[in-house]
Every structure is written in C-alpha cells, then in structure tokens.
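Exam revision sheet. Question 4 asks you to relate a sequence to its structure. Input first:
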Amino acid sequence: MTNTAENQVKYDELKVYISEMMEKPGPLMPIMQKAQDIFGALSFDVQRFISEEMGIPMTDVYGVATFYSQFALEPKGKHVIGVCMGTACYVKKAEGVLNALADDLQTAPGNTTPDGLFTLEATRCLGCCGLAPVIMIDDQVYGRLKPEDIPGILDIYRKKQ
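Answer key, structure tokens:
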C-alpha cells in the first residue's frame, strides 16, 4: 500500500466503514462500493486491504471486483464515454463512431487517456435505439451520430477542464 498521508486517511475511513458493516449480512458488496467511492477504483492494494480487514480470501474480493461491471480496477477518467454497441446502434454503424473516438482520444476501448480526462467504453444497449448510433458522456446522450461529429463533441468536454 502506498503510505502517503492522504492514502492513510482513506484507508482509515475504509477501516471504520468495514468495522461498521461487519455486523450486517452480506457486507462485501457495500464495502467494495464504499472503497471504490473513496479511492476511485479497486486497486490490488485496496482489494488486499479489504481481504485482510474482513478476514476473507483475496480471491473472493477479486472475484467480485472482476465479475460486476460496476467495479473498476483502475481509476476512470473525469468523463466516461459509453459507446452503445447494441443491435440498433451496431446496425447503424456505431463501430465507426467508436473508431473515431478511439482515434481522436488515441486510446482503445476499456482504457483511460493518459491525461485522465476520458475513459472510453464499449457498452451494451443504452436504451436509446431510436437515436442510433448513440454515445453517452457522463449523463449526456448524443444520438444519430456520424464519425465526423466526434471532434466537436469532445471539444465541449476538453474546454470544460
């Protein structure tokens, strides 16, 4: 574990939460959610800490962390971009939109840009089939997209820094 003062405060906060949750049934998921809220992701060190504090095998913690898509092993960017790859979007050429994003951001789906500004994810259906192809950036939906729309959309978020 990294021993910075800031990290120690985070680990102390998590330790208190774990001790509060241990009396309740099924504490692992809420503890992992709290840990992710505190640290931004469930790194190996955070998972090991949870394992040790709860007295459960590391494989149990890692299994949950990798099974559920709500958990991230690495911090996500300031803006998370989800590109719908559901049937309607796929048929309407969402792959071209995804490729345009990957090219512009110079990162592959599932990764975060080196500046930490964007995380690019290929997602399942976003429920906006009538607007296909669709992306969602944070909570904002953009529909009926073409690859050439991507630079203008990304510029909005780059200017917000």
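Marking note for examiners. The first helix runs from residue 5 to 21.
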